[in-house]
Structures are given as structure tokens and as C-alpha cells.
Task: inverse folding
């Protein structure tokens, strides 16, 4: 018995049985469905959605070890496909580092992550074997960039950088609609920026580099200096000025290295008032060398339009035939 | 009378008349010809070549003001086409900054260059009008990267960075066979790297940024500190250790931002002994975070295989139908 045949049968049955669900009601009857996973260090968001970007169903799973977590993920998709119909493909945006080199023996693996249990986990392979559909994997930030490009703050753009500043600092860059990969994916959270005069004494907390950008500008780095949780740090604390300078340097680097048409910055550290300070410091570090008027536009550096849904919607977009 | 018809007539005539020229003799009889220009601040190299990368004819022109220089360039191609046959298209690798945004009013212009006479020069437009063939423009370093990718040290690679360290510092990056452009092309010569402890007092010479990378690691920056021309600076001078550190930081940035499969570094400042020092400092700044074994290979950072011909051959490759 072919799997798609079985699924179609169950789908019709369930559409009758569960007709009261708003999500299912809104589902265009002839639309194909696609799966999406935002795989994070603390949670996995699993979802089923349409080519138009509507998430018709989703589940949040706490991240445990790979075996337990992936079993729960596969259970979810089995159950979702019984309820909604089969998914044609799955897109996955995951924490990393990931091996994304086609032809590599560990293609699709999470590699040298500090999360020990997840080191050398064949994420894409396990999902492909379990779901028997094509699986498209990229970093969480590349997925978020793709989501914003298709349905959010990057529509009609060819190039976009997506930055998240939270527990760590991640950067995804898309050119010509494709995430940038070479030997591996970008890891711009670990660049060395110039230290702010009022912050010279702080040694930084990156286990690999000490005072690289992530070591001095991530959420835990702010906590290490202020002794406060982010929500308890006063808006007038000088740390925000320092933070804007460091993130402004990151944006200057992005302009000099990639010159994306827009930079979106999200994540738990970001506050509305930070954006203008970051733009100001970016222009300071660029020193009038780059003339493009776009850099001075108030939306050149802005918040992701899809908010927290950027990652899961981006993963969905990766599963689409033109994704 | 159509131009191609006229040219074909003259071509046959001239192949008979000038059969003694080695270049023309070697020309495959059915090969189409393409034009190439490496447009630099001191010289324009103009050439005619084949799809296999053979330059069958070339001329060096001193760079003067745009009117005089471009007139000489057009004269060259008129004369070369009379001798050799018509060119199907022209590829141009040029100094910049360039406007490479399709749809922009100043698309194909040299924009805010410090070379005043060349500011806001419609380089691509003038060549297209003069030669009546398709013109493909990119930066000199992007062209060099494409040349190395097709015929030099980047064959079989998908991504490559080409760095030139001379009067200035330029970086071209190619992903999936295409040069990286967003809002504009990369300008990684102007990033801010961390200052070396033994070089803290030098203010740098970049007119825009003072001590950005170009301001402290270009040829003139070495001259400013040592008071000597490059060829007179002793191999044991500490400046080379400082230079290796700064260029190592650039390479670390390239790995973190683009992770190209290889980095080629050329230009007048480079010496054979610098490469291993740069690789060592790159690995220091990466701090074992990026695991890819390729980074430790002795040829990960190496000299351009095409040497000084990378730029003009790259310009030629841009003119090809699959360039």
C-alpha cells in the first residue's frame, strides 16, 4: 500500500470528522501541504503549512536529547499528516554549526555544537528516514532570512541579512534569493569588533574567543556586566550605548562584506530604541565611504516583520518547490 | 550596412594580410572572439580573447582622464576588430566604487572614486555605445576572482575570495559562480581589525577611516611606517609580522562572513613568506571555532595561479555566454 494513498484516505476522513477546527476550515481544499521545523537549543517548533505561508497546525516541543526529541517530532508529523494530509516536503531551520556541503559524509549533521548531546547528530537524515519526504536543511538564521524575504520585511529584495541577538548572536545572509554558504555557513557572531572605550575592562564570555562580538554583545554578556536580567536593565544604563556601538560595527561589517539591501535584527536583547543607535554607529564606522542613500533610510536596519514566526515560516518556505 | 557584416568582411581580409602574427595563427578558425578590459587607476589593459581563455591580442593604455582614455580604448577595439574579427561581447573589471544595481539611474557608472576626473563616469554606457555590443561590468577584484575560478586557482570550486593588497586593499567574493553584490559590491578593505600591540601608535592613512585595514595594511601604509619602499623593507622587519596579523584577521572575517572554499591573495605587498603567517594568524583569530579541515590545508590561503593575468582573464570570462 503506497503511503500517499493511505494518507489521502485518512485526510478525507479527518476533514469530515474535525470540520470544526478553524485551521482546517481555512485550508484551501486543493493546496498541497508542507512541513516545517524550527530546531532550537531550547525548543523545536514543528508545523504544517501552505505554499501561501499559512501555518495550519503547529506544536512546540522541549529540546531534550536527539533520540527523545526526534521521536516526538516524528510522532507529531505522523499525527499531523493523519489529521491534515501528507506533506510534500519538509524545511528545517536549525541551530548549528551544520554541515551543509553537498557530498560531505556528514551532510545534514549538526556538528561541533556546545550542546554535547547533539554533537554529530544526523538531523536531516533522521527526519528524511522517518518522514520519507525530501528534507531541506539550513541554519535557523538563514531560514528566518528566507521567511522575511518571502513574507516579511524583505519582500521584493534580492539580498537581506537577518541578525538575532539573544543567548548567542547569529547572522543569516541571503543573496539572489539563496543563503550564503561556502565551506560552511556564516558565523558572523564571532567576529572581533573594536572595543568601546568605556567597556575595555570586560573580558568577554565566549568560550572560544573571549571578547568576540558574541562574547561582549549577547544577552549573557550583558548579564555578566550588569548583574541584571535584560528586563531589569534600565533604559538609561550605559550598556545600551555600548551595545549599539558593537552591533553598529556588525552592521558596518555586513555592509562592507555583503552590502545587503536590508538588515533585520531580532532576538531577546533587541529593544525599539536600540535600532536608531545601531544605525548611527554603523554610519560612524562606515565614515561616509559607502554612498548608497539606502543606508541612511530609517528602515535599513529594522525589526523582523514576522517577529518570532520568521524562523518557522522561513523553514516552511524552504520546503516549497521554489524555496 | 550592418556592422557585423562589415567586420566579417574586414576580418577575412586581415587574416590573409596578417597571417604572420603568432596570435592570429593560433586562433581557432571557428572560435568567436570576446573583448576584455581591466580598468585600473594607472593603466587600462584591453584584450581580445577566446572562450578557452587565450588572449590573442592586448594593449596597455595609461589611464588619463575618462574622455582621452576611453577614446583610446575604443580606438583599440576598432583596430583589433579590423585585424581579428568582431567581438561578441565585452567584459570589464574596473576600479570603483561602481554602481552595479540593475535599474539604477547610474547603473554601470564609476561613482565616488577618489580619482576626481573619474567620478560619476558612465563607463559601461560609453563602452556599449562605442562598441555596440553587450558590456558586462564588475569590480576588478570580482573579475579576478572569476578568472581564477574558471582558469586558475579556483577551478572546481563554488566559492572563492580574491584579495589584492597593493596601493589599496580590495576583496572580490564569488558564491555559486556569481560575484556577491547587494546594495553595492563588497568593500572589505575598509573593515576595522584589532590593532597589533606593537603597532598601536600608527594612526593609519585611509582618508575615510584612518586606521581601517587599508589604512594600516596597504603598501602606502607600510611605506608610512618604515619610510622604505616595499622592496627595501628587510624580510626580518617586524612590520611583516604585523602585516600577517592584519591580513590574518581579514581572512578570519572572510571565513566567518563568507566561508569561501579558498582565499587567493595577490598584489604588490605580497611575498611568498607572508602566506603561512597569514594562515597562522587567521587560525588564531578563529580560535578553533570553525572545524572545517580545509582551513588548515596549506593551499587554503594561496597566491593567484593566473598571477597578473587574473583580472584581464576574469574580464574575458565575464563576456562569455556562461560567464
Result:
Amino acid at each position: 500500500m503506497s503511503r500517499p494513498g493511505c494518507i489521502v484516505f485518512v485526510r478525507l476522513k479527518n476533514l469530515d470528522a474535525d470540520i470544526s477546527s478553524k485551521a482546517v476550515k481555512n485550508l484551501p481544499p486543493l493546496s498541497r501541504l508542507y512541513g516545517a521545523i524550527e530546531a532550537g537549543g531550547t525548543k523545536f517548533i514543528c508545523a504544517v503549512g501552505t505554499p501561501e505561508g499559512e501555518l495550519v497546525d503547529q506544536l512546540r516541543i522541549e529540546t531534550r536529547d536527539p533520540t527523545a526529541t526526534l521521536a516526538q517530532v516524528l510522532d507529531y508529523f505522523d499525527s499531523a499528516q493523519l489529521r491534515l494530509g501528507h506533506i510534500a516536503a519538509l524545511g528545517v531551520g536549525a541551530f548549528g554549526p551544520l554541515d551543509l556541503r553537498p557530498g560531505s559524509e556528514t551532510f545534514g549533521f549538526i556538528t561541533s555544537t556546545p550542546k554535547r548531546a547533539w554533537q554529530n547528530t544526523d538531523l536531516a537524515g533522521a527526519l528524511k528516514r522517518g518522514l520519507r519526504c525530501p528534507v531541506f536543511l539550513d541554519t535557523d538564521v538563514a531560514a528566518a532570512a528566507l521567511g522575511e524575504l518571502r513574507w516579511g520585511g524583505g519582500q521584493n529584495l534580492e539580498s537581506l541579512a537577518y541578525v538575532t541577538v539573544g543567548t548567542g548572536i547569529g547572522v543569516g545572509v541571503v543573496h539572489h534569493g539563496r543563503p550564503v554558504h561556502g565551506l560552511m555557513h556564516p558565523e558572523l557572531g564571532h567576529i572581533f569588533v573594536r572595543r568601546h572605550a568605556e567597556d575595555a575592562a570586560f573580558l568577554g564570555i565566549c568560550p572560544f574567543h573571549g571578547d568576540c562580538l558574541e562574547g561582549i554583545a549577547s544577552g549573557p554578556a550583558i548579564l555578566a556586566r550588569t548583574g541584571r536580567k535584560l528586563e531589569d536593565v534600565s533604559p538609561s544604563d550605559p550598556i545600551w550605548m555600548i551595545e549599539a556601538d558593537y552591533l553598529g560595527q556588525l552592521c558596518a561589517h555586513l555592509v562592507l562584506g555583503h552590502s545587503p539591501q536590508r538588515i533585520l535584527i531580532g532576538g531577546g536583547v533587541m529593544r525599539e530604541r536600540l535600532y536608531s543607535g545601531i544605525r548611527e554607529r554603523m554610519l560612524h564606522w562606515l565614515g561616509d565611504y559607502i554612498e548608497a542613500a539606502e543606508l541612511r533610510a530609517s528602515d535599513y536596519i529594522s525589526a523582523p516583520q514576522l517577529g518570532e514566526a520568521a524562523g518557522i515560516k522561513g523553514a516552511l518556505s524552504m520546503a516549497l518547490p521554489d524555496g
User: Anything to note?
Assistant: Chain A is about 35% helix and 15% strand.
